[in-house]
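Try this one yourself first.
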């Protein structure tokens, strides 16, 4: 075979194509890299679902950014039903209407109610930019007061639970 410009270009093209196929295209299937992240949270008043105490002596919401509800047992009566109307104010700061409820954690003595009844496991409509007052009911008629009425209470806001969903 004679060496001319065409044969040299074909030979170099074959070498480049073969090398690319052998070494890959430069694409990758996984990458692992460390990056710094700045993460900040806002206080509960700026949250999509904001909790605030409604002025009851039984409930306070902490202002340290975690929105923790604190229940005071000092004004509870043993062997009695204690009701704090409007103990918690819940505001939907989001753009969507939601169904608002308290996850059913089988509370023995604790209930959360609105005008239509209990919202434990039964959502109440809470429209965008609206606020609902939640009554706190503590029933100690058959139970003694434990140190912890409830370790954790989960408030749920779900678009699919709104009556217009």
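Now uncover the answer:
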């Amino acid at each position: 075979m004679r060496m001319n410009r065409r044969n040299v270009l074909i030979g170099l093209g074959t070498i480049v194509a073969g090398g690319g196929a052998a070494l890959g295209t430069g694409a990758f299937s996984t990458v692992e890299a460390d990056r710094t992240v700045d993460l900040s949270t806002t206080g509960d008043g700026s949250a999509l679902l904001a909790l605030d105490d409604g002025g009851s002596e039984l409930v306070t919401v902490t202002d340290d950014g975690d929105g923790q509800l604190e229940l005071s047992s000092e004004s509870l009566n043993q062997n009695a039903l204690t009701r704090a109307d409007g103990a918690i104010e819940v505001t939907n700061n989001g753009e969507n209407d939601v169904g608002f409820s308290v996850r059913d954690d089988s509370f023995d003595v604790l209930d959360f109610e609105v005008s239509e009844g209990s919202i434990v496991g039964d959502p109440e409509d809470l429209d965008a930019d609206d606020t609902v007052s939640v009554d706190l009911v503590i029933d100690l008629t058959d139970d003694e007061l434990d140190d912890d009425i409830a370790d954790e209470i989960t408030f749920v806001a779900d678009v699919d639970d709104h009556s217009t969903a």
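Discussion: The helical segments are 5-23. The chain has a mean pLDDT of 77.
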